[in-house]
Amino acid sequence: MIKIDSYFDQSQWQKFTKASETTQTPCVIVDLSRIKAKYKELAAFFSYANIYYAMKACPAVEVIDLLAELGSNFDCASIYEIDKVLDCGIAPARISYGNTIKKAEDVKYAYEKGIRLFATDSKADLKNIAKYAPNAKIFVRILVQGADTADWPLSRKFGCHPDMAIDLLVQAKQLGLEPYGISFHVGSQQKDVAAWDDALSKVKYMFDWMKYEEGIKIKMINIGGGMPANYLSEVNPIGVYAEEIHRYLQEDYPDEEMPQIIVEPGRALVGGSGVLVSEVVLISRKSRTDLTRWVYTDVGLFGGLIETLGEAIKYPVYTPKMETATESGTVVLAGPTCDSTDVMYEEAGYQLPQNLAIGDKVYWLTTGAYTTSYSSVDFNGFPPLKTIYID
Ligand SMILES: Cc1ncc(COP(=O)(O)O)c(C=O)c1O
Prior knowledge:
Elements: H1 10-21, E1 27-31, H2 32-45, E2 50-54, H3 61-70, E3 73-76, H4 79-87, E4 95-97, H5 104-112, E5 117-120, H6 123-132, E6 137-141, E7 150-152, H7 162-174, E8 178-183, E9 188-190, H8 194-212, E10 220-222, H9 238-252, E11 260-263, H10 267-270, E12 274-284, E13 293-297, E14 317-318, E15 328-334, E16 343-353, E17 361-365, E18 386-390
Helix pairs in contact: 2-3, 5-6, 7-8, 8-9
Pyridoxal-5'-phosphate binds at residues 54, 56-57, 75, 98, 154, 185, 188, 224-227, 264-268.
């Protein structure tokens, strides 16, 4: 069973419990002051980089406004995210269109709105950018390793082989675009810092090739997101990531040749700001002698906990009875819908107090990232996950 003080000091925790007293569950409580503190920490550790918040992690206006004020830039995945950021009064120069998969009309729309920085990883997309976003800066995303050590890998869907990326950069120049940078993402909740080392060595090969074989100077490296939030298993502090990545970069580039570095944190920046408050709907066993209890909560995979799919992200689960319970037992944790996929943890062996009862509150810690935006709109009639912002 988890200890709350491994995640919060008492006064921080009281802010969440106080807010949860008056809210109907399920509901995520997001403490904006924690995002502020985390942003400052990231900005200090990654002082050698420009931060582009991967807003898909929590695309709320409250978060955008806060981060904009702190000086963040924004990595957007769609024209809808772009519009949201622009509507907050943020200049297009602070926005990157980071999705390699987009319609020609969306490229055109973004360009008309003033966006000038685009990701790509394919010929067809590059041609669209050349046609509808003339003179734009492009960065090419490469395929990298890291899936084995990331809890939420980004697999082969994005990026291309470095040799193909070189072709795209060369072609970009021929098409009148600026071949500006190279990007990668080593997988989200990446536990192995060395994954960046591996990716950066591919980037270095590309930098050299572009310079010496093609006569093109690449100016930017986008090292993606991937830095972890604090879930159940221990991870290195963010400072270790920042320092190690800096060391890898310094090994490859002397100070005067250091390219612009972009970092796109999502999970690491907002994950720790949220606590999802839920209630136990039902506790049952599957047979008279079954040792395992099934605990059904009013939140599940379709209500915001989709990242428990395959038991990938293991949220710390807390109930106040943990403070006094003398006995605990293994549970399966499942959601409230009539879909058998809606089981969060069956294999992981979560332990909850034996005296847990229907109606008790269950708190899902570190749920500030990838919860609200993933929540379904009407599955089984359940409304989208509510969010309350506190400061
Ligand atoms: C292009 C891009 N950048 C950054 C991120 C954020 O990654 P993370 O939440 O692991 O920091 C993602 C996540 O999907 C992404 O697709």
